[in-house]
From TrEMBL:
Catalytic activity: L-threonyl-[protein] + ATP = O-phospho-L-threonyl-[protein] + ADP + H(+); L-seryl-[protein] + ATP = O-phospho-L-seryl-[protein] + ADP + H(+)
GO cellular component, one term: cytoplasm
Domain Protein kinase: 26-290
Family: Belongs to the protein kinase superfamily.
Entry protein name: Protein kinase domain-containing protein
Lineage, opening ranks: Eukaryota, Viridiplantae, Streptophyta, Embryophyta, Tracheophyta
GO molecular function terms noted in the UniProt entry: ATP binding; protein serine/threonine kinase activity
Keyword Kinase carried by entry: yes
Pfam families (alphabetical): PK_Tyr_Ser-Thr (PF07714)
GO annotation terms (biological process): signal transduction
Positions bound to ATP: K53
Amino acid sequence: MGSGDGFYSIEELSVDTKWLIDPKHLFVGPRIGEGAHAKVYEGKYKNQNVAIKIVHRGDTPEEIFKRETRFAREVAMLSRVQHKNLAKFIGACNDPVMVIVTELLLGGTLRKFLLGMRPVCLDTHIAVGFALDIARAIDCLHSHGIIHRDLKPENLILTADQKTIKLVDFGLAREESLTEMMTAETGTYRWMAPELYSTVTLKHGEKKHYNHKVDAYSFAIVFWELLHNKLPFEGMSNLQAAYAAAFKNVRPCLENLPEELGIILSSCWTEDPNARPNFSQIVQMLLQYISAILPPKSMIPSRVFASENALLAPESPGSSSLIAVCDNSGEIPRGEMEDEPKRFFFFCFKQCY
């Protein structure tokens, strides 16, 4: 519930005061992303390069209430979870506008990365490594009782060296409750799980029961896209794709894939949510596949099995190590160039707002 002046108090944000930042220290650079209710900018916070998400509060009392509630929920969840495959949360403020500050990831979205490669596909082992990054991120969220509900390539960002994927945007994420009815038709149609629909068209905002297994379905669609570098349900509109998946049980083609990967995909996107694996199982299935395609560990430099950007120690190699095995280009990643010139001027946050 919002305060009388329309802003959330520290208590209502349900976040430790250490995460509340002073907007006077924020400097806003060029826009790097935009959604329906928010824009993301490259910027600086206390001389640290950051991503600044500015959320539009809305125009009507109803919009303002919904967006303030969503903002408070997102900040509370971001402050609770930390993982090497989740964008690092730095802080938030809600005056003069609602702002969420995270680490800056310069590798671009997975969507942009794949589009730039088409029609060429990723090597299978690199695609599997990226999938492992994603699975670990969702596994972390689920272990904290959080459902992401909007897993898609636009919400997956690559690090500057384009060897690691991190999950961003908790705008639609929710804490899971066995008794809670949650809003249906939440997410992006092409990647949404079938149980988010009904055989009778749902009214906007109607509630229904579903659980964390919706993320497993979305993961499978993203994983298929990683393996094929094609838009899933190609030739269909977003609504047509959702209808085909929900009411005709249509799924992307599994031909020309290793049998083990086909089993992972089909189990994750099966119609019955209860039959889908949880993400700790998905991680193990991916690791088993990786262990079968990697050369013996003794033949790989020890650095391959260490993650330089890990916030939590990884149990085993992810995409970064897999790419290191096959990357013989010798090129210096953009993020490692010490003498890279400054790319833009920053403007004070207060000057803009």
